[in-house]
Specification:
It contains 14 helices and 12 strands. By secondary structure, the protein is of the alpha+beta class. It folds into 2 domains: 188 residues, no CATH class; 169 residues, no CATH class. Helix 2 packs antiparallel against helix 9 and helix 3 packs across helix 9.
Length: 388
């Protein structure tokens, strides 16, 4: 009998134990893959949203923390503490182009929707949007909105449809081409209309600033701070670093939770293999009497442990990926999960993660099987054969 056949026979002998041990590994690896894939998706979305912002500098309210910086990327509701007078002062600085935004929330069919008040011409130039259906803002479309593709699909909206924002009926003028980011889920309104509807007259949430000379960016930051009396000014790179630091701390927490699940699965393997060692003492003794070496018995137990890890890793990976894809659309609407919801399944499936997770599961299982394999190999033939 070959070593592989011996291992397969030993595993299939106790099918119930095999299933429950495998289930423990599957759950542990599935948790690991789910948290890793969603965390990786979040990082990719942050990079993409930072690039799509199109700004070199972002002006935010005084005393803003990392959450407000994250909200700039997600379109989450923000305080409206920046005045249009302050925006004018920034625009007066030579070499800067300022595009103001009002970030708010509304609801369609009792589901939250991001609203962005914009200066239509300046924002179109900054974002380089394309129109998929209908038309963009014009002087004749004062009480109208332009919406992202995903939002139009979600609520069945098209040019000519009406939406209610703060008890006022607005007409959908056009639908944007898909951008692949949070703009696909956003409703855009002309800034004066948005300020009136949300009672933020002469105020905005943040401003995107492009500079003519990147070498003078530190000088521009200082000028803006002085001219506005202390508004927060961050570069796109600073914002990216700050937001990634927040997401990094979340990822570490998720990875620790997943590590606990994998550790519990490893102890399950140890328990299963130790039990198999005691149950198969007589069989081990007979093998030794027939000339089997200690290394052969050790390898048999290691292969059995590795098999648990390999099969558990494969089932765990695909269970975890399925969970990531299935759960993302139902995650609560907040600054972190908006990015995950907007990422789509393409950014969740990572073949490098699949391969590394299966290898990780197999290695953990092999390590967990070392002690039981050593105990089995150390049994003396006389002791093993005489075991009842």
């Amino acid at each position: 009998m070959t070593l592989s056949k011996l291992v397969f026979r030993n595993i299939s002998r106790r099918r119930g134990r095999f299933v429950f041990t495998l289930l423990g590994i599957t759950i542990g690896i599935a948790s690991f893959v789910t948290f890793q894939s969603m965390g990786g998706s979040l990082k990719k979305e942050i990079y993409r949203e930072t690039n799509s912002l199109g700004a070199n500098l972002v002006v935010i309210p005084k005393g803003s923390c990392g959450y407000e910086q994250l909200s700039v990327l997600t379109g989450d509701q923000m305080p409206t503490n920046i005045t249009m007078d302050e925006v004018s002062k920034i625009a007066a600085i030579k070499g800067l182009t300022v595009v103001p935004f009002l970030a708010q929330k509304t609801a369609i069919n009792n589901k939250p929707v991001s609203v962005s008040g914009i200066k239509s011409d300046a924002t179109l130039k900054l974002k380089d949007w394309k129109i998929r259906q209908g038309s963009y803002f014009s002087p004749d479309t004062e009480n109208s909105v332009v919406i992202g593709t995903a939002l139009a699909e979600q609520f069945g909206l098209q040019p000519g449809s009406t939406v209610t924002v703060r008890s006022e009926q607005l007409t959908v003028a056009g639908v944007l081409e898909r951008t692949g980011g949070r703009d696909d889920y956003t409703m855009f309104i002309e800034l004066p209309t948005a300020q009136r509807l949300f009672k933020a007259v002469d105020r905005i949430s943040y401003a995107a600033v492009t500079v003519d000379n990147l070498e003078l960016i530190d000088q521009y930051i200082e000028q803006i701070t002085v001219e506005t009396g202390g508004l927060g000014v961050i570069s796109d790179k600073q914002m990216l670093k700050s937001v990634l630091a927040i997401v990094g701390s979340v990822n570490i927490t998720l990875q620790l939770i997943a590590a606990i699940s994998v550790l519990a699965a490893a102890f399950g393997i140890i328990n299963t293999m130790m039990t198999a060692t005691y149950e198969r003492k007589r069989e081990i003794g007979i093998l030794q009497a027939l000339g089997a070496r200690q290394s052969t018995i050790f390898n048999a137990f290691i292969l059995e442990s590795g098999f648990y890890g390999l099969i558990g890793g494969i089932t765990g990976v695909f269970t975890g990926l399925a969970a990531s894809i299935a759960v993302a659309p139902y995650i609560g609407n907040n600054a972190f999960t908006t990015l995950v919801k907007g990422s789509g399944t393409g950014s969740i499936i990572d073949f490098k993660l699949i391969i590394s997770s299966i290898l990780f599961s197999t290695i953990i299982a092999v390590i967990a099987g070392v002690y039981p394999a050593w105990r089995a190999a150390r049994l003396s033939p006389v002791e093993a054969i005489s075991y009842e």
